[in-house]
Amino acid sequence: MNINKNPILFTLTAIVTVLIGTIAMVFYPMTLKSTQPHNDMQKPYTALELAGRDVYQQEGCNNCHTQTVRPLKAEVARYGAYSKAWEFEYDRPFIWGSRRTGPDLHRIGGKYSDEWQYKHMIEPAKLAFGSNMPKYGFLADMKIKAKRTEASMKMLGFPYTPADIEELKSKNQLDALVAYMQILGTAVPRPPRAAMVQEGEANPLAGDAQEVKKGEKLFQLNCMGCHSIGAEGEEIEDLIWVGTSADYEGWEMVGIVADGFEGSMPPFGDFMGKEKIWSIISYMRSMEAK
């Protein structure tokens, strides 16, 4: 029988051939350990973190944020080390996202303090000037579905104890979301940063009134969510003393702004150049003239 002259036989043969090829090339490799990269640094989610991941999907965060840092110079400079395949071992499903209305979040873990994350979720525009991110303070009034999380932990094979599930009953969905955000990308250690300035380096913008004004605008955009100058801004720490205190030299202040403090102040050197930071220091130092 000539298969080319029998449409039914030809169709069935084509379907069987495609199915065999699909199974051999797509589904079978998915069962091989060699196609599932593993690294001991990547740990399964805790019950609270997994609940937070569910909240992340529930609120559609992946519609505006990605979780993949591509191996491009500009992205690595802004976000940190590019994403590794093994970092997604415990993600089911993947929530990489496809568009960036907001920044990529794969290296957000530990970059800010828990307090900052809570404040940002409640009043995004207060910490990120001009942000169009919705407010998520209402999540603090929503309980975690502990039984659902426990079922997910079992299905995914993640280790947990009854105490972990019991703890969820005293937490809310905002707690869970912050816990999830704080673990993202932390399995890859952050490399040490090269010093932005040399010890004893003088401020090249000192005394430049135009740079002081520029520094004031940069301070308002980037710093006033957490710091104040005099009566303005959030009173985590009033920095009015910087202008009159000799405790820190200008070059030391550049280092603080550029490198930040792990878990409390983000490193602004990641996206600000030396000149912009010097402008901010010039503005802060201008207080001693008032």
Provide an overview of this structure:
The protein is 40% helix and 2% strand. The protein has 290 residues and is mainly α. It has a three-stranded mixed beta sheet, with no helix packed on it. It is elongated and about 95 Å long. 26% of the residues are buried.
- Briefly note the structural class of the backbone: mainly alpha
**Name of the CATH class of the largest domain:** Mainly Alpha
H-E order: HHHHHHHHHEEEHH
Oligomer state of the chains in this structure: single chain
In the predicted model, the low-confidence regions spanning at least 5 consecutive residues are none
Amount of helix: 40-55%
Q: Would you identify the CATH architecture of the largest domain?
A: Orthogonal Bundle
- What kind of sheet is the major sheet? 3 strands, mixed
Can you tell me the number of structural domains?
A: 3
Spatial order of the strands forming the largest sheet = 2-1-3
Average predicted confidence as pLDDT: 88
CATH topology description of the largest domain: Cytochrome Bc1 Complex, Chain D, domain 2
Radius of gyration, in Å, reads 25 Å
Q: Compute the number of helices.
A: 11
CATH homology superfamily name of the largest domain: Cytochrome c-like domain
Per DSSP E runs of 2 or more residues, the count of β-strands stands at 3
Principal-axes shape call: elongated
